[in-house]
Design goal:
This protein is an alpha/beta fold. The protein is built from 11 helices and 10 strands.
């Protein structure tokens, strides 16, 4: 990962801010441990199609400029810019905490989604294997699972994913908002290329898994032109569903996104920002529930119609997977404690 100058929008929750008067030092990768006492989070947003999520990591090395989760890093006393990409937080007890959660009498075996505010298959997972350990717990308890990722490392875990799929319900949604590799690299600098993600979709599908594609976010004026090509390609790769959201830029994400856009795609910048304001009532963001994912206005409706029409033409369903999962959850029998060993001497 190439070092870049530290660059974070001001953190409204921090009592102090640092300003460099001379040369700005480069960012460097740092990993911190999170020893929280629980790992399952509840979501009550009407815009999200699931209620429970697990995030083994915080922050994300993929460094996507548009990531709506960037502001969550500010609650950890970090920044939403380069800190989100290089100061990564890991939960070493994630699997143990998940098992404890499943043992609670109140848990009824609802679908648990990985992740929500990070990518559960970002590069750190290759060595730490926290996501895999959590999935093994889900397999042990036959708990339904959903996964949202753009990390092709998911292919490593086909064995445990197939086991979950046989004994409970499992769906995977691969994030693929771009078809143009050059634009993808500008906006998602450390994520796998679109073509590599298409290969992952094919391998997951050939393994018999239920694979959807998240064409998200669609950024007006930037990748809305890719919609037809993405949907055609993912259907050919074996995906059966596709869904999308329009870009949202809450809080400091606006600054990170605009700075990256102007630096990497300067000739498109004004057009893209104009189009985003067009679907957001003149602003770069609209935080209202039931509006923040969809946008409004003629341009937003045109994108919706194009997506629905193309998906129907190529044979993709367009609903997010929100149906109730079958009741497969079972707590495995507890192993009895070992018998005490008696000594004759």
């Amino acid at each position: 990962m190439k070092a870049r100058p530290i660059d974070n929008p001001p953190n409204p929750w921090a009592s102090t801010a640092m300003e460099y008067l001379d040369e700005i030092p480069p960012s460097r990768l740092e990993v911190f441990e999170d020893h929280s006492k629980q790992v399952v989070s509840h979501n009550d947003s009407p815009d999200v199609g699931f209620s429970w999520s697990v995030n083994p990591y915080r922050g994300c090395l993929h460094a996507c400029a548009y990531c709506y989760a960037r502001p969550t890093h500010q609650y950890l006393d970090f920044g939403a810019g380069t800190d989100f990409e290089t100061k990564l937080v890991v939960k070493p007890r994630a699997a143990e905490l998940l098992r404890e959660h499943f043992e609670r009498p109140s848990w009824k075996g609802e679908t648990v989604v990985f992740s929500g505010v990070t990518d559960c298959y970002q590069p750190l997972e290759a060595s730490l294997r926290l996501t895999r350990a959590c999935l093994e717990v889900c397999a042990e308890y036959r708990n339904p699972v959903g996964i949202i990722t753009k990390g092709v490392l998911i292919e490593r875990d086909l064995d445990v994913l197939q086991r979950i799929s046989r004994e409970a319900r499992l769906w995977v949604s691969v994030s693929l908002p771009f078809h143009n590799a050059e634009i993808a690299r500008a906006m998602e600098p450390y994520a796998a290329s679109p073509q590599r993600r298409l290969l992952a979709i094919r391998r997951l599908s050939e393994a018999g898994l239920n694979v959807a594609v998240s064409v998200a976010p669609i950024i007006p004026g930037l990748n809305d032109e890719d919609i037809s090509r993405v949907l055609t390609a993912v259907r050919e790769a074996g995906a059966t569903r596709a869904h999308f959201t329009l870009v949202r830029l809450p809080g400091p994400v606006k600054d990170v996104f605009e700075e990256r856009l102007r630096a990497k795609l300067p000739l498109r910048a004004e057009r893209v920002l104009h189009r985003i304001r067009e679907i957001r009532g003149g602003e770069l963001n609209d935080s209202r529930f039931k509006h923040r994912m969809r946008g409004e206005g003629l341009y937003a409706e045109t994108i919706h119609r194009l997506f629905e029409t193309t998906a129907r033409k190529v044979g993709l369903r367009t609903s997010f997977i929100t149906e109730d999962a079958p009741d497969t959850f079972r707590r495995p029998p507890r192993k009895p404690p070992p018998s005490p060993q008696l000594s004759l001497f």
